[in-house]
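In the current project phase, the collection of sequences with tokenised folds has grown. A sample record is quoted in full directly below:
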Amino acid sequence: ALMGYDPWIDEDAMPAGTSLERGSLKGMQESCGVVFFLTPSFKDQGFLQTEVDYAVNEKRSKGDAFAIIALQFEDEQGNVGEIPELLKHYVWKKPKSNLQALCEIVKSV
């Protein structure tokens, strides 16, 4: 457990053959928060909106015991990751470095 947290990363935590939607839902239900890394190169294939819906439901259910953290990254050309509409209701951060991103995550959980 890094820094007292045991991060659950969807790609690493789900064995082959796991339904992405069910795996993501279970991961959020067992977590104290979710981090969305929004990069300019990310191409949503329909899963992001589902994960945002799951996160919002967990937030409603758990209140302050669940954090929704959105980090918007910028590439060298100045392009930024798109903030999904439902996440615009929460404060998001635009970290300038990976260290700043980590600090934002730790402050939020």
Notes: The chain is about 40% helix and 15% strand. Residues 10 and 24 are 6 Å apart (CA to CA). The two ends are 14 Å apart (CA to CA). The mean pLDDT is 81.
